[in-house]
Amino acid sequence: MVHIVRKASLPGPSEVIERLVPAALAARSVAVREPRPAGFPLMFTAQWQLIEPAVAYLHEHFVQRAHTADTLRTYAEILYDWFETLEQNVIPWDNATAVDLVAYRNRMLQQPSAHTGRPYRVTTINHRVRGVLRFYDWAVRAHWLSASPLTALPRNMTVANPARPITRGTAQAAERSFFVLRQFEPMPRPLVSEQARELLASLPPPYDLMARWQLYTGLRVSELLRLGVADITKRRHQVTSYETIEVMRKGRKPGHVIASASLLDETAGYVSGHRQAWLQRARSRQRGAEHAALFINARGAPAGKSAYQRAVSAAGLRCGFKATTHLLRATFACMLLARLERLASEGAAINPLLVVKVLMGHERIETTDRYLRAIVVDAVVLKDVLDTLLSAEC
Length: 394
Known about the structure:
52% of the residues lie in helices and 6% in strands. It folds into 3 domains: 1-90, no CATH class; 95-157 and 171-184, no CATH class; 193-392, hpI Integrase, Chain A (Orthogonal Bundle). A hairpin with a 5-residue loop joins strand 3 (242-248) and strand 4. It has 16 helices and 4 strands. The protein has helices spanning 21-28, 52-64, 69-88, 98-110, 122-141, 149-152, 193-202, 207-217, 221-225, 229-233, 261-284, 305-319, 325-345, 352-360, 365-377, 379-392, and strands spanning 3-6, 41-44, 242-248, 254-260. By secondary structure, it is mostly helical. The radius of gyration is 25 Å and the shape is globular. The strands form 2 sheets. The protein has a two-stranded antiparallel sheet.
């Protein structure tokens, strides 16, 4: 069985036995050019041999390329599952072939996830297959392998299907991979006003305010959790109906969102109320409670992504419909795009898709176009969202 061990911090002189004190002192003076931080995953075989190429791959992407912790976790999960499969079938990683990867993909199609007990989604299967292919491409470029069948084989299906030109906006070349399953992207369906109000009323603090921020600004969860108190308190002196909030987008790209004055006033009330009370209680119990994060939990610690997502999902089940944090973001996109489309049809000189693309932090306009197709298909939901949700602000 493949093992993952998290890198720990080096012990200090007071934490080791007497004969190791000189070594602990010397270790502090050793300068490492690119040190791996504490908590970095180290991958070992069942015989406790370090899987060096996997660790080097994670090191390059997280330490050298400065990817986020979520990206590191995703890449580590993909490599762990792949190397675990290879070890169970006694296949050396550098001898893996297309047959092995197809068998790995088909196993996920036929067997449920050992972690959740539910069948794998097609998006999950394709994501893992692409992750494995990306790893072998890197291994050849980094000279861990001189060559690999997983990089040398053509990945299109020109033998089975006649070649067709790929135009902009159609399925990309990666979707035509021999290993990748055919995938249909579902169109988002926004929440109607009654659902949004009921969901927000069912959420406890601070998750109700976090959901309101997503519903009114379209922030991703990771972007929402990066908000600090200082980001909200930097308001202009003049009275306006909205404020522009600078945010750090996905991939560490700078961006901004537009927050209404009512949302900022409600957030200020949370900061002076729940947040301050939770921090005071944490200090009285001698827990670390000095956090710049805007959203914290009742224990005085920064709010967690998983806890927030579970709270939204559970609240949706109590209300009788499926709710996710991404659905809140999709609702913002659909209602904003619909209103901008209406203004454009009345003669306003705007490009609705480009406006939504900027406010959503999308890298490609094709991603934003999904919401345009959604509002065209679901006209009943669109009318309700426009006439009630936006005007009432829930």
